[in-house]
Structure formats: structure tokens, C-alpha cells
Amino acid sequence: MNTFLKEAAAVKPSERQLAWYDIEFYAFIHFGPNTFTDREWGQGNEPEEIFNPEKLDCDQWVEAIKAAGMKGMVLTAKHHDGFCLWPSAYTEHSVKNSPIKRDVVREAADACRRGGIKFGFYLSPWDRNNELYGTPAYNDYFCNQLTELLTQYGDIFYVWFDNACGEGPNGKKQEYDFPRYIELIRKYQPQAVIFNDFGPDIRWCGNEAGIARHAEWAVIPGELCKYSEVQTGEGPMAEEGDLSFLYNTSQSLGGLDNIIYSKGLTFTPAEINMSIRPGWFWHQEEEPHSLERLFRTYVTSVGANCCFHLNLPPTKDGLIDERDVKRLKELRALLDKEFGNKIPVAVTKKEGGFPTQPRYEITFDKPRNDFKYVILREDISKGQRVESFQIIVETRDGMNYPFYQGTTIGNRKICQLQDPFAGQNPLTKTIEYGASRLIVQVTSARDEVFMKSIEVC
Ligand code: FUL
């Protein structure tokens, strides 16, 4: 068991996964015929003429994205209706036959570059327009399109696939050749991360509502991620059970209870994705979600060992809706208010403790009761190791109170001690005379803990 835990602790991210963690918060852009037909899934028979965003301005998209502090954009180059936002040489169902005749992928990629943010694309394998769909030849068609996008639009940080798979005209489902798609991406854009339900680089969190798990492990059983690299041997109970019941909605994917039965572990972190509105595509009558909901999702994504991928759907004019722009600015202002002012602290690690149970003492410049968050970061480049921790507050009069109990940490854990939407946390009553120190006590870990930083704000 001990050897296996040490192996689990040493499962490491790739360079491209580390770069992805640093991007933290980025935008999805769902745009295409559905924007004009008021649908979420097109049928593939929409005439090209309907795609006519007369005021299209991708710089306005980038401005909105940056107003929220997001650092990248992922554009739906092709959604399930098969319509291409770039003039693909392999189909007539694209912008080249629309009234605007503009290469939206190029304009978006250029706008990202001008604005200093990353660019990536979504390419739906499910294509309801192409007649080859459902036959092996469709994989060639798909790879040709993928190659166009990978070779003609500069650096790509992200290729986002979804697993939706309908029936083609022959009534057959397509067998997607993911190993071939992955090979192409590695060949032309080796720094790009690839998303699919189960990796290889980034996996789906299991819902589209922005809901995170209580303990989000990036180190998970390879049984779930067949295209990710398995980095360990079998769990100690691999012969005495199996993990066939696991799905990406399961609560504790990487918990000890599961990994002991695993045939080997991979490093495959989750992305939390949701739309700013109920739909992925723009619909006039929909309103953006509340500031509270977006803020909470940020805390449970960027602040829970994931990244946050927030969709902003352009209107029929080809602009991000002003209602959404307003909400994005409010979100940024709130994030800056909550996390922008770090409280001066001195952090020392207590000498002589067990390597898997380090204790960090955080001393304030003066007794305080105005702190709201403790932000913990493991050095994820060395693996994800902490299983559980607690935060204890020491008051001026020398009393100790357990304040927060957490599970794993990973890249970043935002421990929320007070909530801007819920008023005063009853716990803060205990420190109304001021806390002089906080103690972060790791209570269990898979191997020696490497904490990268501890911040209080
Ligand atoms: C899903 C699609 O079916 C939705 O339309 C949307 O694009 C979402 C991000 O992925 O699988």
C-alpha cells in the first residue's frame, strides 16, 4: 500500500497541463447557424445564407473576455450542424457561401493575438451535414479539417472535442478515430492541451452547470482515461474488485476508496465549463446568470484544482451581448475586491514534523478578524499529494478553534471563511476579538508535501 501511495503521489502533469493550469479562466464562444435559428443543436440542413452577423467584431469579443480577466478563447469552429466558421477546402457548408464571406476563425485568432490572449478551437466530431458521416471516410474528412485549423491559424492553446455522436445519413453512428486526431494535434501543435470527456489532457467535470466535486483529484484511475498516460502500477486491491461502475459524474474519482482498485493512475485534471446564460448559443430572451452564481463557480473551479471555462455567446449581430459584458465587469470587480488585497502574513513551516503532516503557522501583522479566504497551493509539478487538512485559528487570548476542514488541495484551493453573499459566517463570531495566527495542518498526504504558497485575503 505504502509503495502504491508513493507512486500515486509522484504522478505528474505534462508541461502543457501545467501551462493550462496557469491560464485558470478562459472563454468559450458558441457561434454559428444556431445563433440565427434560435436552436441549441442544428440539424445540418440550415442554408448557409442564414449566417449573417452584420456587425461582427472579434475585437469586441476579446475586450469582453479581458474585462472579466479571462486569458483565452475557444471558438466553435464547427458545431454539430457541420457549418464551418472558416472557408474549409473540404466542404461547401461554410462561411464561404454565407453573405459575409469572412473567415471568422482567422478574425477571432487575430483578435486574440492583438489582445494578448490565447486562442483555441472546438471542432465537433459529430457532423450532421456531411454525407460521409457514419463511414470510415469521415475520419479522413475530419482529419483534413483538423489539419487546416492546426496549420493555418498560428499557435493553438486548446483543442476541445465533445463526445456527442449521432447517426449519419446511413443510420450508422460514427466511430471516431481519437488516436489519429490526437496524433495530428501532437504533430502540429504539441503545446496544445486536448479536452474530451476523459482526456487525454483535460477531462469533463461531468456536468454543464459549473458544479464541482467536493474533492477534485487530477490523479485518477486510468480506467477512465484511455488516451492518457498511465504512470503507476496497479492499486493494492486491483485483483479484488474493478472500477467499471465509475463515471465522470462519480463524486470521488481519485479518492483512495477508488484508486486502490485501479489498474494504474493518470494525471488528467478536470475543467469546469458552463455558459453565462442557460443556453450555449445566444437566445434573445435569456439573461446572464447571477453574479453570485458566477462567483461561486469561480471559487469551486479555479479555487478547487480545476480551470473555469465560461461560455459567452455572440448575438446575431456578431457581438457579445451588452448584458453579458456588464455581468463580466461586475464579476471582475468582485474577484478583485475579494482576492485582490492580500493580507500581510509571515508563513513558517514547523520544523521536525512528519513529512506527510506538515504544519504551517501563519502570523498576522496585528490581531485581525477581517480575513475571508485562505488560498493554498501545492506544487502540482511534483504531483497532487494532500488528502486532508484543517485550518485552525488562534485568538489573541490563546484559544484555538478549528475553522475549516478540507480534503485535497492540488493546484489551488480557495478556502472560503466568509461568504460575500451569505453575510457573516457564524465562525467569525469566534474571532471577533481578533486572530493572531492561523495554523494550516495537513492531516494526511500520500507522500511528502510540497506547498507552493499560502496566502490570506
Ligand atoms: C456539448 C454540446 O452538445 C453542446 O451543444 C455544447 O457545445 C457543449 C459545450 O458540449 O457536448
Please tell me about this protein's structure.
- The protein has 457 residues and is of the alpha/beta class.
- The chain has 2 domains: 2-338, TIM Barrel (Alpha-Beta Barrel), CATH 3.20.20.80; 345-456, Galactose-binding domain-like (Jelly Rolls, Sandwich).
- Helix content is 22%, strand content 22%.
- The strands form 4 sheets. The protein has an 8-stranded parallel sheet with strand order 5-4-3-2-1-10-9-6.
- α4 (58-67) packs across α5 and α6 packs parallel to α7 (178-188).
- The longest helix has 18 residues, at 322-339.
- The chain is globular, with a radius of gyration of 24 Å.
- The model has no long low-confidence stretch (mean pLDDT 94).
CATH topology of the largest domain: TIM Barrel
Instruction: Give the end-to-end Cα distance, rounded to a whole number of Å.
Output: 38 Å
User: In terms of structural class, how would the helical and strand content be classed?
Assistant: alpha/beta
SSE sequence, one letter per element: HHEHHEHEHEHEEEHEEHEHEEEEEEEE
What is the average per-residue confidence, as pLDDT, rounded to a whole number? 94
Number of strands: 18
The tally of structural domains comes to 2
Count helical runs.
10
Q: Which strands sit side by side, in order, in the main sheet? A: 5-4-3-2-1-10-9-6
Set out the fold topology.
Layout: H1 2-9, H2 15-23, E1 25-29, H3 33-37, H4 58-67, E2 72-78, H5 104-115, E3 118-123, H6 136-151, E4 158-160, H7 178-188, E5 193-195, E6 203-204, E7 219-221, H8 256-259, E8 265-267, E9 270-275, H9 291-299, E10 307-311, H10 322-339, E11 345-349, E12 359-368, E13 373-378, E14 386-395, E15 400-406, E16 413-416, E17 435-445, E18 451-456
Parallel strand pairs: 1-2, 1-10, 2-3, 3-4, 4-5, 6-9, 9-10
Antiparallel strand pairs: 7-8, 11-12, 12-17, 13-16, 13-18, 14-15, 14-17
Bound molecules: beta-L-fucopyranose.
